[in-house]
Amino acid sequence: MEKFSKSTGIAIIVANMVGTGVFTSLGFQLLGIQSYFVLMMLWFIGGLTALCGALTYAELGANLPRSGGEYNFLGRLYHPCAGFISGWVSATVGFAAPVALASMTFAAYLSAVFPEIPRTLSACSLLAILTVIHCVSRQTSGKFQQTFTALKVALILIFCFIIFFWGSSPQNISLVPKLGDENILFSGVFAISLIYVNYAYTGWNAVTYVISELDEPQRNLPIVLFVGTLLVMLIYLLLNFTFLNAVPIKIIEGELEIGVIVANYALGNHAGKAMGAILAVLLVSTVSAMTMAGPRVLQVIGEDFKPFRSLSRVNSHGIPTIAIMFQSSLAFLFIISSTFESVLVFSSFVLGINTLFSVAGIFILRQKKLSIEGAYRTVAYPLAPIIYLMVTVWTLGYVLVSRPDEAWAGLGIIFLGGIIYGFSKNRDSEII
Question: Which of 257, 296, 343, 380 is the most exposed place for a label (fewest CB within 10 A)?
Answer without folding.
Answer: 380
